[in-house]
Amino acid sequence: MRTKETAKNLYLKKVFSKEDDILRSIRTNSEKENVGHMQISGYEGGILQFLCKALKVKKAVEIGTLHGYSSLMIARTLPSDGKLFTLDIDKNRQEKAKTLMKKDPHSHKIRFIPGPAIQSLKTIENEGPFDMVFIDADKKAYLDYLDWSDKHLNSGGLLAADNTFLFGAVYGEPEREQDKEALEVMKKFNEKIAHSGMYTSTLIPTAEGMTVGIKK
Fold first, then answer.
1. How many domains does the chain have?
2. What are the counts of helices (DSSP H) followed by strands (DSSP E) for the chain?
């Protein structure tokens, strides 16, 4: 989810958000359905693309499709034979995503998997190991998603997770009341990536925070 716009983030969106008609259509539809705040910004998508290109990601997993904005941005960085497995509990949203991106020449790289992610992840394990996992879903399950990623990411693979500031709550300046369980999970999530020794990691200070790690 997005936090209040600042001059910094408006500048980043103006200069580094390169949206074409398809991406704008996805964003517009999400806003019409009042879920636009759950979607990454264009410049955050650019960060994902930069990392995918730098690390030569070929096979990726996304936990949380929404209407496919980040899915398509990731897919566009993959080679012609690359694959993105995108998971979402809401089948209707995934169907909308398919419709919105069907004219994009990179959409064939995306495999949509509906259902609870904890269950769906088990169904794709035989496709791994993976070069990237992007997490942008149920905050209380972030540690479960991290545990799965620990086991199924390649060495040198990318882990990225959105909303890891949890609206300022993780550093003691919450912009709104937060669920205590979600807050504790997010704190443990960041600390585990930072200190487990499994990842070279940092937290990129985007509007909502994006924690990234490269598996050792």
1. 1
2. 8, 7
Residue written as token pair 């990237």: 132
Is the pLDDT score of 94 beyond 80?
A: yes
Q: Which residues of 185-206 are buried (b: 16+ CB within 10 A; e: fewer)?
A: bbeebbebbeeeebbebebeeb
Contacts of 175 (CB under 8 A, 6+ apart): 3, 4, 167, 168
Listed residue (116, 4, 7) closest to 63, CA to CA: 116
Digit-coded pLDDT (tens) for 19-65? 899 999 999 988 888 887 888 999 999 999 999 999 999 999 999 99
CATH number of the domain encompassing residue 12:
3.40.50.150
1 within domain boundaries: no
Q: For the whole model, what pTM was predicted?
A: 0.93
Q: Strands 130-135 and 153-162, how do they pair?
A: parallel
pLDDT of residue 141: 98
